[in-house]
C-alpha cells in the first residue's frame, strides 16, 4: 500500500511547466509561484553592493490549496510531488486513512517517517474521527521534518457553504493550522469546458454498437451488479478493481436509494478518474444519480465532485 502512494497515472507527467493557468484567474499563476517557493525554499534578497542582505522569513512546513472543482489543484499537487527530492508520498485522504487501518497507527508513522514531503489530495473534513487521526499523524511527521501539502474540494455553488474551505480546514487541523500556508485557487471547472456540462447516457442500440467498437480492457455489468461488488470490497481496494481497465460499460443506471451505496460509488468514481477509465452507460445520466436530499446533506461536496468527474469520464467515452 505504501508503494502505491504515487500520483495517479494521468498526473505522472504533471509539472508546473505544463500547468496552464487561466489568465482570467490570477490566483492560478500565483499558486504556481508559491509552489516553486515552497519546494525550493526562500532565497536571500540583496540590494546594492553596500546594502544589508536580508533573509526571507522561514517557510512554513505545510501548504494547502483551496478551491473549487476542476481548477487544477491535483495537477499542482502532483507537480509539487515531482519537484520534491528524496522519499515522498502522494495519496488521497482515504488512502492514508486506509493505511492506518491496515498497518495500525504506530506502523504507519514508522512507514512514513523520514519522507521529505507528504501530499494529501482531497482532504476530507466530514469525518471527525478520521480527521483527528490524520491531524495527529501529520503532527508527528512535521515534528520530524516532513513537509505537508494538501488540497480539498469546495464546489463554487455549494449552498450555504461559501466558495472556499480554508477556514474549515484550519479549524479541523487545529494545532497544526499555524504550520500551513493557505492558497486560494479560483477558476471554473476545466472538465466542463469541452463538453455540455452533463454526463452522457446512451440508448440500448448505441450501447451495443459502442461495445462492439471497444478494444482493450473493458467490463460490462449492470449498475446494480457493480454496486453489489463494491459492497463486498473495502474502498481502499477499489484501485485493484480498475487496474488494467480502459473503459467500463454500465447497464440500467438509476438514482441511489441509500447513502451507503452512493458513498461507495463516489470512492469508486475517484479511482476510475485517477486511472482515466472511460464510461459508457445506459439509463439515468450518471450526474443525476444523487437525489436532491443527498445533495442537500453533509456529503454534498463528495457528490458534486463525483458528478464533475462522471461528466468528464462519460464525455470521453469512445463513440
TrEMBL record:
Pfam families: AFG1_ATPase
CC annotations in GO: cytoplasm
Keywords: ATP-binding, Cell cycle, Cell division, Nucleotide-binding
Tree of life domain: Bacteria
GO molecular function terms attached to this record: ATP binding; ATP hydrolysis activity
BP terms from Gene Ontology: cell division
Protein name: Cell division protein ZapE
Organism, scientific name: Homoserinimonas hongtaonis
